[in-house]
Amino acid sequence: MHSLSATEPPRFTTPVSPSLAIAFHIAATEARTAPSAAPGWVRQQLPDAVGDCHAERLQIDRGLAVVRSRYLPLRDLAEHSAQQDGTRRLILTFALQGDSGYEAHGGERLAFSAGFTTVSAARDSVGERRYHAGEAVTQLRLLVDEDTVLRYFGEEGRRRLLPDTGLRELAFGRTCAASAVHAAALGRRTAREAPSPLDLHIHALTLLANEMRALQAPAPAPASTAFSPQDIRKLEQARDLMQARMQSPLTVAYLCASVGLGESKLQRGCQELFGASPYRLLLELRMRRALALLEAGSQVAQAAWQVGYAHPANFSAAFTRFHGRTPKTVRSRKT
Is the whole model's pTM more than 0.70, yes or no? Predict the structure, then answer.
């Protein structure tokens, strides 16, 4: 997903002389808190004179937050940004609309371009976010703190991904279809269409898993069979069906009949789009939801039933193989 190729868009470029070319220089302290239409989100709004520029943040879990932003500045904009709390953080930015950039005071630069994902890591980074006048920029950012990286990727992952200080770009590439679905779900803004807290958690963790899997994978060989946009929609429907009906016994034959794909195309499509076979994809969805249910206070038998296991013993064995710990060791966040 993140290998650079001839399809990579031009990187966002900042003006040669920012002090002359950028009309607005905004400090982080100039943003004000404003009401959000979605419960739980905290909205920060830049002054009206700058344009329609705001960001909303939701703390999904300890060390895991999502930020969605929309900027439409009236003139070129440089917004000061400082992360100086000493926390090492993994940042996944999904550019949904428009192009923008970030330039750290140390000279490091990041580009954000519609349809592409930028994966970076930072500690005590200070710089400026850059936006062009009159260009709408919509983004979704997943912020993963050091403790959460350690929890899911271990000590080796923490050493490999997180810098001792400053800013580091880890990957830049086209957003895969699977991640686009979850980013869109997290970006829903009204209370009526917003996912439940459990689904928000699942969307965020699945995004993280997708991007880390792609980051660790070798560059893929050219596909022998291209998938049409209609095929991709059907594959996404099959994945959504797995998530919606994971409590039921699902078979490849049932999925194929439900979405109108042949078994061979479903197998190859899941592997190419989602990085896993249909069986493995369903298992990952079930085990991630099971973990979220247990952390939300569900009993082991309840979680087992809700993710499609009739016998708790079978569920416990599958959970232990997947997560490396038994369900009973999962501590509820309610306590």
Answer: no
CATH of segment(s) 229-329: 1.10.10.60
- Per DSSP bridges, beta strands 77-83 and 24-26 are parallel
CATH (residue range 18-216): 2.60.120.10
| Residue 30 CB contacts under 8 Å (≥ 6 apart), including other chains | 46, 47
Exposure of 175 by Cβ count < 10 A (0-12 exposed, 13-18 middle, 19+ buried)? Answer: buried
Q: Is the pLDDT of residue 4 over 60?
A: no
pLDDT for residue 225: 53
Going 162 to 331 to 287 to 115, the CA torsion angle's sign is: negative
Angle at 78 between CA 52 and CA 111, to 5 degrees: 95
Q: At 102, is the secondary structure helix, strand, or coil?
A: strand
pLDDT digits 0-9 by tens, 90-133: 999 999 888 999 988 888 888 898 888 999 999 888 899 999 88
Give whole-number Cα distances, 198 to 75, 147, 210, 289, 292, in Å. Answer: 40, 21, 18, 8, 7
CA distances from 177 to 18, 81, 186, 239 (A): 36, 30, 15, 11
Q: How far apart are CA 117 and CA 138, in angstroms?
A: 13
* pLDDT, tens digit, 9 for 90 and up, residues 281-318: 999 999 989 988 998 889 999 999 999 998 999 999 99
Cα separations (Å) of 12 from 3, 137, 143, 328?
18, 12, 22, 49
**Of 232 and 19, the one with more pLDDT:** 232
Domain ranges of the chain: 18-216, 229-329
The alpha helices in 217-262, defined as continuous H runs, are 229-244, 252-259
